[in-house]
Design brief:
six-stranded mixed β-sheet, 41% strand, mainly beta, five-stranded mixed beta barrel, 5 helices, OB fold (Dihydrolipoamide Acetyltransferase, E2P), 3 domains
C-alpha cells in the first residue's frame, strides 16, 4: 500500500508536489523533492457577469467598445472596471472643459464606433470622455479626426482620467489664411460658401482686438481688405478649453484658430466654436 504526501494550493485544487513512500519499514524514507522557488500567485480575477466571456488579465488594456457594451447591458457592471486601463479609438466628437475644473483639465470626447447608446446626446453613438494630461495636444485635435487614447477608469468607466494620446489620424481641418478667405468671398460668394461651409477650419489671422467675458469671448480679426468688413471669431459659452492661451492673446498677434464658418452677411463674417491652436 502506498501513502501519498502532497503539497497543494487548496483554493485552486491543484497539487504542486508529490512523493510516493513505501509502507515497508525496512526501506528508509526518502525526503520529498520540493522546489525552493516560491509558487507564483495567480492574478486576481474580476467578477464576470453571467453569460460573459472570461475577463482579460487585470493589467491588460481594455477596449472602450467592450466596456461600453458591458456597461450598457447592465450598469451594475461599471464598478468592476474602476482602476483598469482603457483604450478608446475613434473620431473626435468634441474638445471641451467641464465647469469648475482647472484650465488644463481638457476633455476629448471620442466616439466609440459600432456601439449605440440611448445615453448619448444624439441617441445613437456611444462615446468615451477622456481627460488629458497634456492640454496642448488636446487643443490641436480637430472634430472628426481619428484619435487613439489610453487612460484609467474612474467611478465612471467611460470617463477615464490621466489620459495620453497614443496616435492620431490625418487632420481634416482645412488650413487657410483669413485674408484669402475674405478675398474669395468678395470675388465669388457662392463658390466660397460651397468651399468653406460645414468644414472644419484652421484659420490663421492677425488679431485686431479681444472682447467679451467668460460668456462671450471673441476676437476681432484683421482681414486685409480695404472694405469696411468685420470678421469675428466666437468662442463657445462656458469654460474655455484654451483659457490660458486666450488670456495671453494681444492685438497684433498672429494666431491659428480651429473653428467652423458661422455665416457671412454683407460685409460681416463670423467663425464659431473657436479655440486657439498652441
Amino acid at each position: 500500500m502506498k501513502t501519498w504526501a502532497c503539497l497543494g494550493v487548496a483554493a485552486l485544487g491543484l497539487a504542486v508536489g508529490c512523493d510516493a513512500r513505501k509502507s515497508d519499514p525496512t526501506v528508509a524514507d526518502k525526503p520529498a523533492v520540493v522546489s525552493d522557488k516560491p509558487v507564483a500567485k495567480p492574478a486576481p480575477k474580476r467578477p464576470v457577469a453571467k453569460g460573459d466571456d472570461p475577463q482579460p488579465p487585470a493589467d491588460a488594456d481594455l477596449s472602450a467598445a467592450e466596456v461600453a457594451k458591458d456597461v450598457l447591458a447592465d450598469p451594475r457592471n461599471e464598478a468592476q472596471y474602476r482602476g483598469r486601463t482603457i483604450v478608446a479609438e475613434g473620431p473626435v466628437r468634441k474638445v471641451f472643459r467641464r465647469p469648475n475644473t482647472p484650465p488644463d483639465a481638457v476633455v476629448v470626447e471620442v466616439v466609440i464606433p459600432g456601439v449605440s447608446s440611448p445615453r448619448s446626446p444624439d441617441g445613437v453613438a456611444a462615446y468615451c470622455q477622456c481627460r488629458l494630461e497634456d492640454a496642448d495636444k488636446a487643443l490641436s485635435l480637430t472634430v472628426g479626426q481619428t484619435v487613439k487614447i489610453r487612460g484609467r477608469c474612474g467611478p465612471a468607466a467611460l470617463a477615464p482620467d490621466g489620459c495620453a494620446i497614443l496616435s492620431t489620424g490625418p487632420d481634416p481641418a482645412l488650413k487657410v489664411e483669413l485674408t484669402d478667405v475674405v478675398a474669395e468671398f468678395l470675388k465669388d460668394p457662392a463658390a466660397a460658401k460651397a468651399k468653406y461651409e460645414g468644414k472644419p477650419l484652421a484659420v490663421t489671422a492677425e488679431v485686431e482686438r479681444k472682447e467679451g467675458g467668460a460668456e462671450n469671448r471673441h476676437l476681432l480679426l484683421k482681414h486685409g481688405s480695404d472694405k469696411p468688413a468685420t470678421v469675428k471669431a466666437q468662442w463657445p459659452r462656458g469654460p474655455a478649453v484654451d483659457e490660458r492661451q486666450f488670456e495671453a492673446v494681444k492685438p497684433g498677434d498672429r494666431v491659428t484658430i480651429k473653428c467652423r464658418l458661422g455665416g457671412v452677411v454683407l460685409l460681416s463674417m463670423s467663425f464659431e466654436d473657436c479655440r486657439l491652436v498652441p
